[in-house]
Amino acid sequence: MKTCNVDTKSGTTDKLEGTAKIASGTIKQGTGKVFSDTKLRDAGASEKCEGHVQKAVGEIKKAAGQ
Question: What is the pLDDT of residues 19-29, one digit of tens each?
Answer without folding.
Answer: 999 999 999 99
